[in-house]
Amino acid sequence: MNKLIEEAIVASKNAYTPYSKFNVGAAVELTNGKIITGVNVENASYGLTNCAERSALFSVYSLGYKQGDIKAMAVVADTEGPCSPCGACRQVMNELLPKSCEIYLSNFKGDIKRTIINELLPFSFGPDDL
Ligand code: THU
């Protein structure tokens, strides 16, 4: 788990954040041991920004992995407390992560909150509701 957070911190250095200067790193651990990272990538048209969590998860799926291949996820930023994913990312995490996925929210100071998606997005709207 510390390695996953460490990888997210390393990845956060690659964030493209000329506007907010707020770097976020995410790391997804697969059941095969591989770790896939993602960062926030901003845009001059601000609304087109992609958050770190979604960058990481889209990479996981782009590489051909699926929900069942995912074990854990970490999200890190230079925040006062553990970095909390935005609402859009929670919605995407709800759809793409397995329900049991261990989620570690952390910061550069070493604070860690362990959670699960149902805690981050209770009473969610998802694929089963269609
Ligand atoms: N950001 C993330 O990458 N993840 C979140 O869950 C919250 C926000 C990014 C988007 C933007 O580049 C910057 O942080 C400030 O909002």
Summarize the structure.
With 130 residues, this protein is α+β, with helices and mostly antiparallel strands. Helices cover 28% and strands 23% of the residues.
Polypeptide structure, described:
The chain is of the alpha+beta class and 130 residues long. Helices cover 28% and strands 23% of the residues. It is globular. The N and C termini lie far apart (34 Å). It has 4 helices and 5 strands; from the N terminus they run αββαβαββα. Strands 2-1-3-4-5 form a 5-stranded mixed beta sheet. The protein has a single domain (2-120), classed as 3-Layer(aba) Sandwich (Cytidine Deaminase, domain 2), CATH 3.40.140.10. Tetrahydrodeoxyuridine is lined by residues 17, 20, 22, 24, 40, 42, 49, 51-53, 85-86, 89.
Order of helices and strands: HEEHEHEEH
Secondary structure: helix percent = 25-40%
Q: Indicate the structural class.
A: alpha+beta
Number of helical elements: 4
Gyration radius, rounded: 14 Å
Low-confidence stretches: none
Mean pLDDT: 98
- Percent strand: 15-25%
Strand order of the largest sheet: 2-1-3-4-5
Number of strands: 5
Q: Tell me the name of the CATH homologous superfamily.
A: Cytidine Deaminase, domain 2
How is the quaternary structure best described?
A: single chain
Structure characteristics:
130 residues, alpha+beta, Cytidine Deaminase, domain 2, five-stranded mixed sheet, globular
Task: Please specify the SSE layout and strand pairing.
Blueprint: H1 2-12, E1 24-30, E2 35-39, H2 52-62, E3 70-77, H3 87-96, E4 102-107, E5 112-115, H4 117-120
Parallel strand pairs: 3-4
Antiparallel strand pairs: 1-2, 1-3, 4-5
Tetrahydrodeoxyuridine (THU) is lined by residues 17, 20, 22, 24, 40, 42, 49, 51-53, 85-86, 89.
